[in-house]
Amino acid sequence: MLGKKEFVKHFSTSSAAARYAEHVGGILTDKAVRFVAFYSYSKARYSVARDKYAVYIKLSPPYNDYPNKDLRLTVVVYADTSLEAYALAREKIEKGVI
């Protein structure tokens, strides 16, 4: 794991946000959930189907702080080049918005 940070995940409905907040032990704010998680990202991989490079950002809640130990979230970032994909992944992590 590369680090631990607070993230925000937005939802289209309040009920979906409430369910997710209950699972990760996050703080519910309108249609978004703030939660703390460990993060890491993969090497850039070329996706033939999309004709783009993909970087996978993996988020894992700290197990001793949350009731659900199997809850993990993977976010995929696509770009035309591997350098752009890394830059987009780093930007998402720095902003903390998933």
Spatial shape: elongated
Mean pLDDT: 86
DSSP E strands, number:
6
| Oligomerization state | single chain
- How helix-rich are the residues, as a percent range? 25-40%
Helix/strand order: EHEEEEEH
Structural class: alpha+beta
Structure description:
With 98 residues, the protein is of the alpha+beta class. The protein contains two helices and six strands; from the N terminus they run βαβββββα. Strands 1, 2, 3, 4, 5 and 6 form a six-stranded antiparallel beta sheet that branches. The longest helix has 14 residues. It is elongated. The mean pLDDT is 86.
Write the layout of secondary structure elements.
Layout: E1 3-10, H1 14-24, E2 27-29, E3 32-41, E4 45-47, E5 52-60, E6 73-79, H2 82-95
Antiparallel strand pairs: 1-3, 2-3, 3-5, 4-5, 5-6
Compose a concise summary of this entry.
The chain is α+β, with helices and mostly antiparallel strands. It has helices at residues 14-24, 82-95, and strands spanning 3-10, 27-29, 32-41, 45-47, 52-60, 73-79. Strands 1, 2, 3, 4, 5 and 6 form a six-stranded antiparallel sheet that branches.
Q: Can you tag this structure with a few keywords?
A:
alpha+beta, elongated, single chain, 98 residues
